[in-house]
Amino acid sequence: MTTTDVSPATPAPGTPEARELPKKEFRSIFWRSFSLLGSFNFQRMEGLAFLYAVLPSLKRIYKGDEPGLRTAAKRQMETFNMTVAPSPLVMGAAVAMEEKAKADPNFDQTSISAVKVALMGPLSGIGDTFFWGIFRILAISLSLGFAEQGSWLAPIVLLVVFNVPNFLTRWYTLKLGYRQGQEIMVSMGEPRTMQLFTYCAGIVGAMAMGSMTAFWVTIKSPLKFTISKNPIIIQDYLDQIFPKLLPIGFTLLIFWMLRKHMNVLAIIGIIIGVGFVLGAFKIIAGA
C-alpha cells in the first residue's frame, strides 16, 4: 500500500479527480480514524474524533487563514455517527470538498455537511453487514476451533481475520473518498447500486452463516428402534430427508427467538434446560 508524496492538484472542471493526499497527511488521517469511538458522546457522537482525524488536512488547506480554519473545524465537528471501518471514505471526501471550498469562494460550504450526512446511512448499512454480520462471526468461529484444541493461535486468528479487512477497508476507502470528493454521491447514487451491493452482501452473509451452522452446530439423534427385527436409526432417516436437519432447525429456532426479542440469557437458559432433558432421555446428542 503506497501513496504518492505530491501536493494535491485541482482537477479541471468536469474531469475525474485523479489525485492523492500527501503521504504524511494520508497516514495521519488513516491512523487517527481509529480514534473515532474514543470520544463518543450523545451530543456530537463521533464528531470530535472526525475533526481530530481530518485536522492535519484542514491546517494545510487553511494555512494562514485562521477564521477559515475555525469555521471548517466547527463544520467538521458536527454530529457524525457511522460504522467506523468505512468512515475514512467520508473523511477523504470531506477533505477534498474543503479544498474546493477554499479554492472557490462561490462553493456552497453547506454541501460538505450535507454529503457527510448523506453518506452516513448507506455506509453504515454496508459496514454493519460486513463487519458485524460477517467478519466478526467468521473470526470468532475460526478462533473457537483453535481455542477448543487449546491452541495459542486462537486469539491471533481472531485478531487477524477481523482486522485485516478492517485495515484494508480504512486504507482504500480513504483513497477513494479523497479521489472522488463530492462526486462520491453521484457514484453511490446510481440507480440500485447501493441496493444491489447490500443485497449481495446479504447473500454472502447468509452463506457464511449456513456454512458455520453446518460446521459448529453438532446435534444428532441417537434414537434407535427395532421393528420386525429390522433396526431403525432415526438419524439415518433424517439425513436422507435433509442433511444437517437438526442443526439448521436448532439455529432457525434460536433466530426466531431473537426476532421475538427474547432475552439472550433466557434463550441460553432454555438451551441448557431443554438440552439437558433431551440428552438425559437420549433423544439428542452432540457430535
From TrEMBL:
GO terms for biological process: phosphoenolpyruvate-dependent sugar phosphotransferase system. The chain crosses the membrane at residues 152-173, 194-217, 237-258, 265-285. Residues 1-20 are annotated as: Disordered. The lineage of its organism: Bacteria, Bacillati, Actinomycetota, Actinomycetes, Propionibacteriales. It comes from the Bacteria. The keyword Transmembrane applies. Keywords: Membrane, Transmembrane, Transmembrane helix. The keyword Iron does not apply. One of its GO terms (cellular component) is plasma membrane. InterPro entries: GatZ_KbaZ_carbometab, PTS_IID_man. This is PTS system mannose-specific EIID component. Coiled coil: none annotated.
